[in-house]
Amino acid sequence: MKKHLPLLCCLFGLCLLSWQYGFAQAETPDTARLWRIATIDDNEYFGRILSRDSEQIVLQTDNIGIITIRMQNIKSIREANPARIVNGAYWAENPQATRYFWGPNGYGLAQGEGYYQNVWVLFNQVSIGLSDNVSLGVGMVPLFLFSGTATPIWFTPKVSIPIKKDAFNVGGGMFIGTVIGEESGAFGIAYGVATVGSRDKNLSVGLGYGFADGDWGRRPAISMSGMLRIGKKGYLLGESYFLNEGGIILFGGRTVWNKLSLDYGLGVPFATGVFFAAPWLGLVLPFGNTQTPP
Fold this sequence. Notes:
It contains one helix and 20 strands. It has 294 residues and is mainly beta. The protein has a twelve-stranded antiparallel barrel. A five-stranded antiparallel beta sheet has the order 4-3-2-1-5, with no helix packed on it. The longest helix is centred in the N-terminal third of the chain and has 23 residues, at 5-27.
């Protein structure tokens, strides 16, 4: 046994070094990534994680240097896009980057990302990313709350494919609706859309065919839409649909905050001998998909 003792000691030392090296590797953070940390007192910090354990995070920030944040005080940790830091301020994500006022574009929700949309109180829809390329929305106009029996409901499955990241996306899906309380079949539209540009600045062209009770429209509807970010919280929005002998144009803006966005504008139909403008007011509440560093 004694003659093998030096060999056993060497093996034990090698195992110890290997364990320490592996542990160090597992705990070494990726300092090239930028993180956005929100605390329970509603403060936000941006920086690169120097170290992290079960008790605290050491963060290297650009404006206040190295700080230590206790894990018990952290509400959420999200990876931040360095391109969104403009003049020292972080421009919030667009919580409804996959849509304009109503119509979709070629971008999709990430897996676990979702939002609730409400337009003029009656229109309600919840959408969630089932994967990074497939999402599903479910909506309702709850007329049963107002002594009515007929209640429109709908589903909006969508597939999104990035051709070139943050530059060119295509998507396709369907709007499938019916009215509960009436003897009517399904109605809706099947569409495809192509989007050029980023989530903050883009143009989209779409083509769709409507259907009702098993019959399809003979002519497609064409859509052209766009959005442009004009500041830390503001966007310009435009959305238009061209039908057989007319169509509608929606134009206005969007204001975003960390947990809310508000859309506002006017809808103007165009047809021979018809002109009026209808206001649009909608809000979006994002949820889900909180990211944590490895």
